[in-house]
Design a protein that fits this description.
The chain is α/β, with parallel strands linked by helices. It has helices spanning 5-13, 29-36, 69-76, 86-93, 138-145; strands spanning 18-21, 44-51, 55-62, 82-83, 111-114, 122-126, 132-137, 149-151.
Length: 153
Amino acid sequence: MPESEAIRFLESAGARYHLFIHAGPVSSLEQAARERGQQPGQVIRTILFKRPDQGYFLVLVSGPRQVDWRLLRKIIRSNRVALATPDEVFNVTGYRIGTVSPFGLPNKLPVYCDLRMHDQTEISFGSGLPGVAIVMSLHDALPLLEPVTWIHI
């Protein structure tokens, strides 16, 4: 079985999940969803943002949705918000862009979740490994993500 901090975290938590290993490179969210037998909204993207004054936070986005920057700044009460650089993503999460998981992080980060995740019963996340996804029920994922702030993206 593939190994990553995310997978080790899920194992130690006794979580119910399975891994999906893509046969080759994945070039789009739509391709990832199709190969996993999912709809694009079931693929949860984990995006690292930074606030110059308060550090980093994660936003979990359902499918191809785009983050409304104005709304995000209002929700986090900061006029200055930016995407983390690839180096920052690796240094903060231990994962490379395209593989970031909300599980198994070296340090707890604030997590903001797209309310549209509630539209799904099964979702998938990055596993920390290229071409490997964590697939699980929303019901099983939610306690592992807590505490979260639910937002409209």
